[in-house]
Amino acid sequence: MSEPLSVGALEDLLSRPPDKTIASLSRITGDIIILGAGGKMGPSLATMARRASNEAGVSRRVIAVSRFSDLSVKSSLEAAGVETISGDLMNESFLASLPKCENVIFMVGIKFGTDGGESRTWATNAYLPGIVCRQFAKSRIVCFSTGNVYGLVPIEQGDGSVETDTLCPTGEYAMSCLGRERIFEYFSCESKTQVAIFRLNYATELRYGLLVDLALQVINEQPISLATGYFNVIWQAEASGMALASLEHASSPPFYINATGGERVSCRGVCLRLGELLNKKVTFSNQETGTALLSDARRAFELFGPTEVTLDEMLVWTADWISSGGETWDKPTHFEVRDGKF
Question: Exposure winner among 41, 215, 317, 337, fewest CB in 10 A?
């Protein structure tokens, strides 16, 4: 990427399917429905599913379901060959009316506004999954989850939490996400529904994400807290590719997989690099603490191969985008939050 991308070129890059995703979707049968496809990651994932199926030579419907409060998202999906259905998934009659596709990507969830909106968070994150599991009992389902279910781990622990670790969520958001996992686990075991639990840790692109948060603080010369001194991050297109390929691994009991980058990243180091790229002096507050939210994604790399987009590539792209006035969504990740209150 020699110069800043246009939004259209960025969308193309984010929806370009990796070869292994194309191969995986060539081996599974049936249509794909994406529930909650109108969020930050859903549109590019849905478009990737369409493109990967086309490139695999597989004739299937790819259907995106959301309230689609932004009609431009709906239009762009339809232009890419993705069918759209508008409605509220919390409405059981609407949910029951959806096509019973063989493959489901479940992306519905609430994170921000949890503090003070706990009941809505639990209803969305833990009640809705039960209704979905009843409606799609015969489907393969990839359920998006989060590394927050693990809780903070000691930095010296190594590469972070693995899929078999004891779960210690902090705060109602993380607890409700564990609730979502447990509901999918229950129905997977009781109804033999094939499920993959996809624990994602900080996908990023150029309009939002952890690296965008930090780049904006650097360019605006704001002091950066080091209380959470380390993190994982993955280029969003690679996370989308892994999620779609995880359909092939759905099982009963569920298959669990961490999805993130392959290195433990220093917040201090990232900000200093962004300072170089943006020609800004970087200042910090606090010092690194001994714990962070970290996930070990070796299982994903064994199945899907290592990530191809390097950390420095992401930093260069992000700095170029921000310095050239590229669009941002003002949806901070709040990765620095340590008490689970979002």
Answer: 337
